Amino acid sequence: MRRHPSKHTPLALALAVALVATACGGGRDDGEGATATTEPAPADTAADGGTEGTEQAASCPEPSTGITDDTIKLGGSYPLSGPASAYGAIPTGVDAYLTYANAELGGAPGVFEGRQFEYIFKDDGYSPPQAVELVRELVEQEQVFALMQTLGTPPTAATWDYTNQQEVPQVFVATGATMFGLDDENHPWTIGWQPNYVSEARIYAQYLLDNHPDATVAVLFQNDDYGMDYLEGFRTAIEGSDIEIVAEQSYETTDPTVESQMTNLAQSGADVFFNITTPSFAAQAMGFDAQSDWDPIHLLNSVSNSLTTVGAVGFEPLQGMVTALYLKDPQDPQWEGDEDMQTYLDNIGEYAPNADPNNGYVVYGWAVASAFYALLEQTECPTREALMEATMALQDVAFQLGLPGITMNTSEDDRFPLEAMQVATLQGETWQLEGEVIDTREVFGPVEDAVG
Amino acid sequence: MTWRERLRDPTTQRWLRIAVFVAMLGIALWAPFYFTPFRVFQFTRVLIFAIAVLGLGLLTGFNGQISLGHGAFFAIGAYTAAALMEKAGWPFLLVVPVALLITFALGYGVGIPALRLHGLYLALVTLALAVVTPPILKRFSGITGGAMGLNIDIPQAPAWTGLAEDQFLYLLALVAAIAAFALARNLVDSRTGRAMIAIREDELAAETMGVDLARVKTLAFAWSAMYAGLAGVLFTWTIGFVSPESFTITLSISILAALVVGGLGSIWGALLGAAFLVYLPSVADDLNQAAPGIAFGALLIIAMYVFPGGIAGLARRLWGRLLAPPRAPAPATAGASTEEGGEP
Amino acid sequence: MELFIQQVISGLATGSIYASLAVALVLIYRSTDIVNFAQGEMAMFSAYVAWALIGAGVPFWPALLITLVGSFIGGLLVERVVIRPVEGRPELTIVIVTIGLFIFFNALAGWLWTYQVRGFPSPFPQRTLELGPVRAGLPALGIVAVVGIVVGLLFLLFQRTKLGLTMRAAAENPESSRLVGIRVGWMLALGWGLAATVGAVSGVLVAPILFLSPNMMGAVLIFAFAAATLGGFDSPVGAVVGGLIVGVSENLAGTYVDVIGADLKIVIPMAIIVGVLLVKPAGLFGSPAVERV
Question: b/e for B15-27, b at 16 or more Cβ within 10 A?
């Protein structure tokens, strides 16, 4: 078996290096985000054929597996078929951004010296054993440098023992489960990206504390880690306040409808309805809300807040519905002429001709890939260790399509890149941003406190 | 004596069979030391799946009872192993007898009501079993890890063997598969096995001839469930993770599809069908990444056209044609369809 | 009490969704003696066709008509092109082919129309009927009514027309039917066409409630199986009654039996089915299979 060079590097050493690096680099002036790096502009590097980088690489070890003279190979595992295939639009967005970066940004940035991205994603059908097989294939057969996303909590949980044993970065996994940011001891090679479910639940708690401090709440949640994380996060956030959960109902993904659960929740007559569901079920719950004479304040989780989903139900009866956002929606007129949005809309058609640019998952894919690009800009050596060090030292790093004021921040004891979101309400056919961006770590403290 | 006649000679055939078996065993033992760990891991998955398919084959192919719920027994085998290893800290080999006993007993239990059900109704009741198993497992989160599932440390080879993890797991699965196949062979050839086949062909006739219907049918269910349970244990060892998502209805349906693709009523068909189903997704993914399901569905249908009696049936037919004197019609051995009388 | 009635009504509404698909399943079983796993996906596909037509500016009723005719032809074609080559093979082979069709249609719809959730106009007014404290959505009541009409029409077709009689003969005894000059192959195809049409009705009725997506019918199919099994797989009336029982029983179990709760409410209908079948193996309304000796 071919061992990866990294296999021989004790992790402790890597972490020690990381600590030193952060300590020394603390004063570095890169607070202005992704564009403020001191590295030469990527396009220049590419033009010079990468010669410039050699002196800098002198202090770096040999590039890791998956990095050749002119390519950097990444892998991903997503459900492209089966019941969860809606998420299959994500890699389309990721692939579009990376192809765009290859063609128009001169390939990978920074120490990666304009190497062309090679992105291989495969279909795991949301099946954990299938994901294990694919991830092994990507790591052992395809010899990828890093896994740029595995999707879903079960497939990611099934693969993270393996990736961490092999010391292969498994970055920006597409799940908001808190477990992927809390185990730096045993799983330092895995990190999430999107705001975790607990953080988002705290946003809603904050909204209620500010606006309806003595509300009664009815909750509909999916009976798995995703639903529980939200519910528990919310419960802890409202502890000690006058807000009270008066009814909770769960559903299984194998249920055809949530009609019965909604009937029970409506019976509670609660002031607030907290809708923790995936798009099809969210649409049903919104439909129920629209038709019944129960008229609660409707909190819709961001998993389902795509305007396509809301529009499927109809905007008119849902006016005033509350959600939390961290990405810009292409259907939202307020982003017309916005620079990020323009770049996205100008290029998505060219690099993903079959994708629907309004699909929230395509938007997400583009955003997370641009965040990965920004991460590479921060990486100090073309190695797996350096990439992981960079994931733990993000300071105010911007990415494309993020809401104004939302940037990535991590540290040794904060392995959640995004923890801020902004409340928005449905006005007409768009989400109207309300108040300020809320940084949940600042307001409520680290996520660890909520999940124990 | 022409070469055809020589091949048809029973003694030659027996020697041929032994030679083929030895050769295959040789290849199977050599493979893990030649192929990359990833390929070895894939072979292990095929072997594991084949054990489950073989178990369903005993029930459906040889006894004529259809089950769309074998994923449930598979899941219970897998969870038993996971819970005992992870929560109770048992050594991995010790979980095998427990898991086998539990799934055997459950299979026996399901076999009793199944006595009153036939064909389609049995198929759908067992489907119900596959549907309710994941939420029930989720409910007992103290043992099963609930929706989060359980991560298990993958068994490692004793140091003296010098085997890598994947080689070790492969060899474990190989031993289990050989045992399972040998047992199936013997079972099919035994008195009970003949009674099973007699029931498949004609229940009424079998009963008149003194076959104890209830005993044979429930036993067939129990054995079959135990095979699925064994596959489940091996699954836990190899994948190192169990969660409700790993055991959806898709699993039960895949086991059935593999059985039919491989060939009902054929012991070797189980292995071929399992290989087909393990490799099909990646072929489909390569053919049409925008929508792998389109290719997957189409390939599954095409397989049914191309292999009327399953892959094993095709092999048998080709062999029959090879033995037949030139220009004469193929002998009756080609009638694979009579072999797959899985009368639903 | 109010909650109880409300849950019963909601159960009836959900049950009618199961029933509508179960009728299509039963239809194909009666006329071709196989269970079509792809029935739900075909219904979903029909609903998408209607959605695409409406999106292209065709008014609702003409779009529905085109969809029904198209589904009939589509069902006919599926039988002729896909099922024909495996006709006469062991039933399990055909079952696997329909599973292949299931996966194929699901992926094709996703590829053509993406997996995003879509709204679908209901042919019935989006209002709720109020009877005292009890409320029932008109779209749900509409399903019950339409499914009733469909079952009535099917009854007339099979019991009162020559064509229906011929179809039944072809399914029950293909050999003898061939001898008396019935074109059995076409009768089977006709069965598929009819089932696809009934499925299309189901898809169009269900889409406004469950919202249109390629996976809309996946979960419904399991419950439709349960409904048909409970009612007896060769009885359309049984399918409807079975669907309603399943719908109501799961709602009540989920609401009132604390040990069960919402997460295990699926267990109750399944248990009922096993219980009923143990007493009456052919289902509530099914005719017991006669074994030819």
Answer: eeeeeeeeeeeee
Q: State the span(s) of chain A assigned CATH 3.40.50.2300.
A: 5-194+336-418, 198-325+422-451
Contact B293 A82 (CB under 8 A): yes
Residue B308: inside a domain, yes or no? no
> Would you call A157 and B246 a contact, using CB atoms and an 8 Å cutoff?
no
Q: Under DSSP, is residue A165 helix (H, G, I), strand (E, B) or coil? A: helix
- Specify the pairing of strand C128-131 against strand C134-137: antiparallel
**CATH for A5-194+336-418, options being 3.40.50.2300, 3.40.30.10, 3.40.50.150, 3.40.640.10:** 3.40.50.2300
Is the confidence at residue A225, as pLDDT, over 80? yes
- Interface partners of C (3+ CB pairs, < 8 Å)? A, B
3-state SS, residue A356: coil
Q: In CATH, what class is C2-279?
A: mainly alpha
| Per-residue pLDDT at A176 | 92
Which tens digit of pLDDT belongs to each residue from B145-197? 888 899 999 999 999 988 999 999 999 999 999 999 999 999 988 988 899 99
DSSP A67: B
Residues of C in contact with B116 (CB under 8 A): 277-278, 281
Helices (H), B149-266: 165-189, 191-201, 203-208, 213-239, 249-262
Domain boundaries in chain C? 2-279
Report the gap between the CA of B48 and the closest CA in chain A (Å).
Answer: 12
Looking at the domain assignment, is residue B306 inside a domain? no
**Tokens, residue A190:** 């895995």
Q: What is the mean pLDDT of residues C102-120?
A: 92
- Provide the CATH topology of domain A198-325+422-451: Rossmann fold (3.40.50)
Residues A131-157: tens digit of each pLDDT: 999 999 999 999 999 999 999 999 999
Q: Does C165 touch chain B (CB under 8 A)?
A: no
Total domains in the fold of chain B: 1
User: Model pTM?
Assistant: 0.88
pLDDT of residue A24: 40
* Beta carbons of A260 and C115 less than 8 Å apart: no
Residue C37, pLDDT above cutoff 80: yes
Q: For residue C257, what pLDDT band results from cuts at 50, 70 and 90?
A: confident
Interface touch B246/A158, C-beta < 8 Å: yes
If you measure CA to CA, which chain C residue comes closest to B293? C107
The C-alpha atoms of residue A133 and residue C273 are separated, in whole angstroms, by 38
For residue B249, the distance in angstroms to the closest alpha carbon of chain C comes to: 10
Write out residues 190-209 of C within 8 Å (CB-CB) of B.
Answer: none
Using a CB-CB cut-off of 8 Å, the residues of chain A touching C126 are 291
Q: Which residue of C has its CA nearest to A309?
A: C117
Question: Which positions in chain B touch C82 (Cβ < 8 Å)?
Answer: 301
Give residue B330's pLDDT. 44
B80 within some domain: yes
Q: Environment class of residue A380 by beta-carbon count within 10 Å: exposed (0-12), middle (13-18) or buried (19+)? A: buried
Q: With beta carbons less than 8 A apart as the criterion, state whether C288 and C280 touch.
A: no
